[in-house]
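Section 3.1: Structural characterization of target chains.
Under the original work plan, the team committed to producing a structural model for every single-chain target entering the pipeline before any wet-lab resources were allocated. The record below documents one such target. The sequence was received from the expression subgroup and is listed exactly as submitted; it comprises 149 residues.
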Amino acid sequence: MLRKACIEDVKKIHGIINLSASRGEMLARSLGELYDNMRDYFIYEEEGNILGMGALHICWEDLAEIRSVCVVEPTRLNGIGKKIVEACVEEAKSLKIGKIFLLTYQDRFFKKCGFLSVDKKELPQKIWSDCIRCPKFPECDEIAMIMKV
């Protein structure tokens, strides 16, 4: 079942994201950041277990970012990640947001979801406010991708 996250999900989200980050699959997120942005997250769960999550974060009047898409290891390749991305795209459409971007190490997956690779220089300066806090800044090795909604 796909749903919006609630407060009791945050510590579980934190554990799943940071386990994936420890494998080099994505960037880690702090508990504080997750609590601050909890309303951005979608959760996919079955029988009370969180199997995946992802967030749509609004950056500017016509720009949002998909963040922290992660599916737990034994359930990958079952379409859960795609459902989460589709939910984020649908939410962007309902909010009349014109473009969605993301920074990822999983570009093949996001290409299948309709995103196109772009040079990071094409992204507005507004997005870099979060990047300054990243341990990889300014040597970012993530791939920038974008979708027009």
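Residues 80-94 form the longest helix (15 residues).
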